[in-house]
Amino acid sequence: MPPHLVKRERSWYIIDGRTRFSTKTDNEQRAAEMLEKYTRDRLGLSEPLPLDQNAKKLFKQFGKPDNITNMRRLRFPCVYTFIRYGEVIYVGSSVNGFARVMASHHPMVANANDSDQIAFWVTGSEVEAREMEIKMIKALRPKFNMTGNGELKKTGYNQRTEPFSELKKMLRQVIREELKSNR
Distance between terminal CA atoms of the chain? Predict the structure, then answer.
């Protein structure tokens, strides 16, 4: 569910998944403006800061960049798609945003063309990203996510979504055994 407003008592609240915070205003229009700013900031779509003279000269000489975003967006959990000639050919999710897509060990790096495009959807959590990824794969059936007979590739889709969960289990077990032996 996208971020939205809820009025409680005399104040409007922004609700974003499990996150809830007060806008500290009872004015609905002002709360709606704050929600729009929050959503734009969360997605990295906030207006860029005013440029200094050197940056203005640079943009004048080389043209405006294709996109300006903030660092937070590049490190946020997200779902991404590789698009080739208008067709989605791969859907993936990442806890660390752009770093995963550009990693040399990513399966699509070897299959990518220079003309391929990448689209991102920033999510609120790793779990949300995995759920959205699976829904998109089932709906779009991209060729690099499917096996030769049209089945969904199993790699990675049955893993737990909590990072290092297996390692945590093993460490707890080792600590328990260590505590028992010290008694």
Answer: 50
pTM above 0.85, yes or no: no
Question: What's the token pair of residue 5?
Answer: 């407003």
- Considering only CA atoms, which of 117, 122, 132 is closest in space to residue 46? 122
Q: Is residue 173 part of a domain?
A: no
Q: Which domain holds residue 43?
A: 1-68
Let me know whether 105 and 139 are in one domain: yes
Six-digit token pair at 160? 């737990």
Tell me, yes or no, whether 120 and 62 share the same domain.
no
Whether 63 and 82 share a structural domain: no
Please state, in angstroms and rounded to a whole number, the distance separating the CA atoms of residues 80 and 17: 20
pLDDT tens, position by position, 38-91 = 877 776 555 555 666 776 776 677 766 655 566 666 677 888 888 888 888 888
55 touches 63 (CB < 8 A) = no
- Phi/psi of residue 45, each to 5°? -105, 15
